[in-house]
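Dear Dr. H.,

I hope your travels went smoothly. While you were away I took the liberty of generating a structure for the chain from your last submission, since the lab meeting agenda had it listed for discussion. I wanted you to have the full record in hand beforehand rather than looking at slides cold. The sequence, exactly as received, is reproduced here:
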Amino acid sequence: MAKLSSLASVSETRRVLDQFGLSTKKALGQHFLINDGVVSRICDLADITKHDCVVEVGPGIGTLTVALLQLAGSVISIERDSDLPAVLQQTCSPWAQSFTLLENDALLVQFEDLPQAPNKLVSNLPYAVAATIVLDFFLRFPSLESATVMVQAEVADRMCAQPGSKNYGAYTVKLGLLTKATGRFSVAEGNFFPPPRVKSAVVRLDKKEEMLPDDLLHATMVMADAAFATRRKTINNSMKTYFTNPLTSDAVIADHLPELFERAQIDPRVRGEALDEEAFIELGKAYLALKNK
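The corresponding predicted structure, in token form, is as follows:
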């Protein structure tokens, strides 16, 4: 069977890097996929068709990119390593008409910088910023319908965690307001060059059909941050710490926490991890009501 990505092997990855006089950069968290089977599973989980415009962050030498280009209508790749555009121009040249490369930090790219509105994020993400990128893109790119991303396994655990579990936190709550996890599989260290020192997983997240109004979404996210400001404390003590911190202070809320909890019908003695999404939304509504008094 023909490979989906001709670059998905140690020998081909080494050849391309050697051709351009390059090596992997630890500082950028570069770990290139070398297993075509994993590339195929990512594409299958993402359910890519010719109707899709895919945005990819951290394409590297193009191992996943060339597979995406064969399946999608168009691909927009964002790469911050200034040594790699020349590589990608060569490896992706057969699909030049449907490929766009943006040389930038993904967190600095604006929606209007994109030539098309992407509906899917599919990436082997740089692990140090993976969690931030996923949440950021769903917040800032309104056209995004799903994300199928390779991340560190513990980040995948945070993305998919349930209330009451050790991985459940502010990030889980905030991402859960926007998306729901619909698929996951593990990827062993030996599928990368060089092998990472952490375990990896691919997760698919689908954007929720019904979104909260922007003001309530923001308020609920503030409540999530405040509830987990000091994780081992009650939400009352955690929020007191959060709203009296010079960086996040809000005297209106800090002085009216009993009213906040009463409005939301939340026991102030519980911890943040005990609260589900609906409880945080009620806190968000109470927060808005106090702010608008």
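Two observations you may find useful: The CA atoms of residues 123 and 149 lie 5 Å apart. The chain is about 40% helix and 15% strand.

With kind regards,
E. W.
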